[in-house]
C4-dicarboxylate TRAP transporter substrate-binding protein (Alloyangia mangrovi), 343 residues
Amino acid sequence: MSLNAILRSSALALAAVTGLAAAAQADTYKWITFKPQGAGDAQAITTQWLVDQFAERTGGKHSIEVFWGGSVAKTGEIPEALAAGVGDFGDIITPYFPDQMPLNNAVGFFIPQPMNTLQVGQFMEEMHATYPEFSQELESQNLHAFGFRPLEDYGLLCTKPVKSVADMKGLRIRSYGFAYPKLIEALGASPVSIATSEAYEALQRSIIDCTPIGPALARGWKYDEVAKYYIEVPLGASFGHLLAMNLDSYNGMDDETRAVVDQLGKDYLVEYARVVDEDAARVRELWKGDLGVEVIPFPKEELLGVLDDAGVKEVRQEWIDKANGLGVPADEIVKRFDFDTPS
């Protein structure tokens, strides 16, 4: 082979290697979500905020493409799809996977509890920073949580006024998850298992009288069209979603990009909590107007009085036993759910 041919071949090889290196550095990651792009709620809005921030903070070197509305994986499929590498990022509705994620479902066993949206997210951040078992639970499934998305503060949206525990006797209240069935029974009402998507019709047709929910979500699902009483039962914020990554994708990032993701997870919680609070305040103003939803206070002491109920205690003990069995000091952690303990 002539010298020119050798040089030309070497130049082509170098160009190919350089091109591959550039391609490896300029990544487009895939985010799979159940949320519709046009939902216009805090979850969809802040997902787009995070995606935009990721591109900005990496100087345009990396980007995230969002596959909205379950187009790649449905709600119940997302953990498995993420673990298999079908997506790099995704949001997981944690309470849907109690057997896979018992530790990360801690808050769901302790309703009512005193923390708001931001505080619940900070609690989860603290758990992951303090107790490696929380992260290991996900790592065993090839997942990594880089952020947390709690739900808003919850009360009860009802089709009739409720002013005390006495008014709850005999009501049919939508139930789901761990704590709600026993809590509803302790309040003298009947728990009814209804999916979120079916609750509008259930309220409209008097299949249920109330559903636990916050103002922003009530407006988002339009439940407030058929239920006109919002009862300020201090249930606290529920933990909702993990902002998760495929563990291999996370570990495969360079240190700089991984640091961006880590910080974005923390910043996301603050931005999300701000948007949720603004949205809830906006809805409350709408309720005062044409929507005509009456907000009714509820005596906190009556709600807290049912915490001594055997069924409520049983649910809480269930998580304590699971956590202790996994080597986590549950007795210390559950103090955070005490209404007399500062968050």
